[in-house]
Amino acid sequence: MHSKLKTTKTTEVLFYILRKIKQADRYKLIKLVYLADKYHLLHYGRTVTKDPNYYAMPNGPVSSIAKDVLSFNGKMLTEEQIEYVKSLIKTKDSDYNYEAIDKNIDFDNLSETDIESLNFIIKLFGEKTEKELIEYTHQYPEWYKNKESFKKSFNKRVFIEQDELCSILDVDPLLEGISPSHVTISKELIKGTYE
Question: Which candidate, 34, 85, 153, 183, has a CA 20 to 30 Å from the CA of 45?
Answer without folding.
Answer: 85
